[in-house]
Amino acid sequence: MEQNFWHERWEKEEIGFHLKDTNPFLKEYWKNLNTSSNDTIFVPLCGKSLDLLWLAEHVKHVIGNELSQKAVEGFFSENDLIPTISQGKHFVEYRYENITLLCGDFFQLTPSDLPECRFIYDRASLIAFPPDMRQQYVDKLASLLPEETRRLLVTIEYPQHEMDGPPFSIPPADVQQLFSQRYRIDGLETKDILEASPRFKNKGITRMFEHVFLLSKKIT
User: Fold this and answer.
1) DSSP state of 204
2) For 201-207, what is the mean pLDDT?
3) Using CB atoms within 10 A of its CB, is residue 158 exposed (0-12), middle (13-18) or buried (19+)?
4) Predicted pLDDT of residue 7
5) Who wins on pLDDT, 9 or 27?
6) Which single residue of 76, 92, 154, 193 could bond 123 by disulfide (Cβ 3.0 to 4.6 Å)?
7) Which CATH number covers residue 80?
């Protein structure tokens, strides 16, 4: 998926993946992560998600990564926050209190960009990658956070031939294939969301589910 694609999506406001409230799955299953108020959590491809504000109330530090400068600036302006901005080697860093957003290419991240981070919240990141990039994404995260303990992962599933992604369909079998070598995978919930997703239903989607998983690093 070329970077220009995402810049264009944000410029055209084609951001149907953006929710106007905190994701209910995050609220429901947050306790399963077993975080504390002293922890740091990473949110890859965070967009301008309001989940960032909710997370900031529950942990010491929230670090997000987003390619689109428009999305990052939209997050702060729409929430009436004035960040400090600094230019790094690969990223423009926006920081407000305990929220840090790194604007730039996910694949340029290094472990030093995510200090003391052991948790991941992924609602819109994995499903943004086409099949030929997913393993690269999974491997990159593993290299960034080798001591990661838990991850809350949300995917969607629909007949892929009925619509071009993103978001792409990632059923539980694909989650197993991508993560089972490194992680214990616990399915937390599967929800039929087709009737609540008229945007997709109008495109001809005949079935659509959202899956929630807890990933825990295997102990060897």
Assistant:
1) T
2) 92
3) buried
4) 45
5) 27
6) 154
7) 3.40.50.150
